[in-house]
Design a protein that fits this description.
This protein has helices at 9-19, 37-52, 95-110, 137-142, 148-153, 162-169, 194-197, 236-251, 289-310, 329-341, 357-360, 387-405, and strands at 56-59, 65-69, 73-81, 117-123, 181-189, 202-208, 210-219, 258-260, 264-267, 277-286, 313-322, 325-326, 346-351, 366-371. By secondary structure, the chain is α/β, with parallel strands linked by helices. It folds into two domains: 9-209 and 324-405, Zn peptidases (Aminopeptidase, 3-Layer(aba) Sandwich), CATH 3.40.630; 210-322, Alpha-Beta Plaits (2-Layer Sandwich).
């Protein structure tokens, strides 16, 4: 690659902090749940920044936003991520990768560099899966892994569908993303402790671990807390707590197995009523598909044990199930080479978090670049990545994109 591209650090860092004002929380951090008004404001701001850079903006039928800088050919090098966040979100999860893509475009414009292939910056709908499940929904639909009808019909806890929200916010588009993608690079914060602990600048991401999300609904019988003998209760809350405790014990010896019960609700949620219905979510992850399957089997067995032991019924719904994904070897080596050419330290690692890149990997060569997270924290308003790390990651992204697009 004979043309050097230089990121404008000052411009880029100010772009990130100004974007972070959208959906800003009073105590710091950001909340832009998918297709809420704050997400819509973020989308509007992103579209206007894309237009200001001279990009052709296209919005598809699931609300994915694509900004394209034309090359001599329509074949495209794509980058991107997401701007929706969890409720305790930070400035960087997802947004960093989208804005870094725009900074690469701005740097190309500054240098008046024309490219052979087009370059697209994408922002995918509902990556977090916090409001609507599954996560990575927009990129999954774009990659052909879910129909737009099924995606539109998914509902949040209050029964509002994703389709209703797309229509309400005006982001059900008639456009489409690039149809010939030669490579996809996603820049993202690591969201874990590895790079910081090893004092390493760049994470060269080899793939994403397997993800299994389910929702369990325990149905018992409400009764009086003061008059119902313990042996004759159908206590859905106690059953749920017992299952979660037993599941943690049963899975603790499976290597690299992760289990999270992030949402837990009892009804009627009153101090003197034995809980009638208890709903909880279970997030299982493992880089090894067989191990993940074993964990899921143990969960199923524990559910039927619990039904008998507590005289209740349990309904299990699968909310997301993605096998482990490996990224493209050529792109991985490319990222590694660019990091070293810039004098950055780098190491390979598998991603603990799910990412849009794992969906794009279904239809094009894809890879990811990580930068360190302070204290390994994310999905927490204290999420932080230092400015030098933000700029190093963006420099590597820029050179990776340019090496394919020229
Ligand atoms: O859950 C995840 O890994 C991603 O943040 N959606
Ligand atoms: Mn993310
Ligand atoms: Mn996230
Ligand atoms: Mn992601």
């Amino acid at each position: 690659m004979d043309k050097k591209i230089q990121i404008n650090h000052k411009r880029f860092l100010s772009d990130i902090s100004s974007f972070g004002q959208i959906g800003a929380l009073s105590g710091g951090g950001v909340a832009r749940l998918a297709l809420t008004d704050s997400d819509r404001l973020g989308r509007d701001e992103l579209v206007s920044r894309m237009k200001a850079l001279g990009l052709r903006v296209s919005i598809d039928n699931i609300g994915n936003i694509f900004g394209t800088r034309a090359g001599r050919l329509s074949s495209t090098v794509m980058t991107g991520s997401h701007i929706d966040t969890v409720l305790t979100g930070g400035l960087y999860d997802g947004t960093y990768g989208v804005l870094a893509g725009l900074e690469v475009i701005a740097a190309l414009n500054d240098a008046c560099i024309e490219t052979e292939h087009s370059i697209t910056v994408a922002s995918f709908t509902n990556e977090e899966g916090a409001r609507f499940q599954p996560d990575m929904l927009g990129s999954l639909v774009f990659a052909g892994g879910m129909s737009v009808e099924t995606a539109r019909a998914t509902a949040d806890k209050s029964g509002i569908t994703l389709g209703d929200e797309l229509d309400r916010t005006g982001y059900a588009g008639a456009g489409h993303g690039p149809d010939h993608i030669i490579s996809y690079y996603e820049l993202h914060i690591e969201q874990g402790p590895v790079l910081e602990n090893e004092n390493t600048d760049i994470g060269v991401v080899t793939g994403v671990q397997g993800i299994s999300w389910s929702r369990l609904t325990f149905r018992g019988r409400s009764s009086h807390a003061g008059t119902t003998p313990m042996h004759s209760r159908a206590d859905s809350g106690l059953a749920a707590m017992s299952l979660i405790t037993r599941l943690h014990t049963a899975l603790k010896d499976i290597p690299e197995q992760l289990i999270t019960c992030g949402s837990f609700q009892v009804l009627p949620d009153l101090i003197n009523v034995v809980p009638h219905i208890t709903t909880l979510t279970i997030d299982l992850r493992n880089p090894d598909e067989q191990a993940l399957k074993t964990a899921e089997k143990i969960l199923t067995e524990l559910i039927s044990d619990t039904e008998k032991a507590f005289n209740i019924s349990v309904k299990k719904e699968t909310l997301a199930r993605f096998d482990p994904v490996s990224f493209n070897g050529k792109l991985i080596s490319q990222i590694e080479k660019i990091a070293h050419n810039n004098g950055f330290t780098a190491r390979r690692l598998c991603s603990g978090a799910g990412h849009d890149a794992q969906m794009i990997a279904r239809i094009a060569p894809a890879a990811m670049i990580f930068v360190p997270s302070v204290n390994g924290l994310s999905h927490n308003i204290a999420e932080l990545t230092y400015p030098d790390d933000l700029c190093r990651g963006t420099q590597v992204l820029a050179e990776a994109i340019l090496s394919d697009a020229l």
